[in-house]
Amino acid sequence: MAAILAHGAGNLIEIHINPTSSSKLSYLLYPGLLITILLLPAYRFVLKDYHAFLALGPGGTPKTFLGYLRVSYLRLFTISDPFRPPSLAETVFPTNGYLRQLPQRSGPRPTVAGIAPHRQLNQKCTAELHHLLRDGLHKLAAAFPSLIRKGSSCFEKHGLALFLSACTQSAPPDTTYPSFSHLNPTCQDTGEICHLHAMVSRPDYQTSNGRLIATDHLWYPKDSSMHLTLHPLDVSIVISAGWGERHPLAGKYVHGKELLPSGFVMVYAPREESQIETVMEIVKAGAWWVGGVDLANANDIGGEDEVHQERDLGKLDFKRERCGVLTVVR
Description:
This protein is α+β, with helices and mostly antiparallel strands. The chain is 32% helix and 20% strand.
């Protein structure tokens, strides 16, 4: 490469010193050759990176080149360390997290890639485990019909997600978000607790004459990981136990807009049936953060009677009941 560039540069100098009719053609050809040589590595990098973006499958970003450019721009704002939990600010409410401890996840962490979508690339669970995990989410929603509803993820626009009803815990009077329906709003205040990355259909791309063409729609197994938002202390426990990591854009602002909550994390897919219980415990921690609801201590499952919350939200008193759930005011 260096020899070619030196040869081209030498010819250009010779053309300027001794211009002839034959050198005029070289004068036109060499700059184009030099530009091609310089741009070819960049073109190959972008093409490979674009294919890697498509290979992650559907997510919150359109699978187009413009979507790829948007994600590439957002890379400028990613956090430096996804394994460092967010700081515990004085304004965090509830002041205490939900989790006390988690069993340590064995083995190395899986490989994770992407921004939107953000996916686990290896150590994926089997189809049987995926269905058991999905059934666990359905059962949790069925156990608390007045609290939890199912739907498509607000963040990803597809995939099974759980949402906390808007009539659960509302924000304390002195918070900066008094108009929101949830204690800690997520994704346009929808109350999304979590969403599961599942098997989805996406186009199968092939290259024809240098162009990507969608030839067919195929089913691709996703990683069965989850995204959810947690209390900062719970984020710390999840990370230290090896069960997850923060999203690259967690807590980041672009043009004055927060892209994702600071406690937005990926929880890795379970690899054994016994690990599903651990993942579901983290899901309950998500409900605690979004609405101050302690699902573990609900003594009247599915009913409209009082749901006792024994966990400490902070220096608060239980003073009112809404939708069958004790909520709190200062």
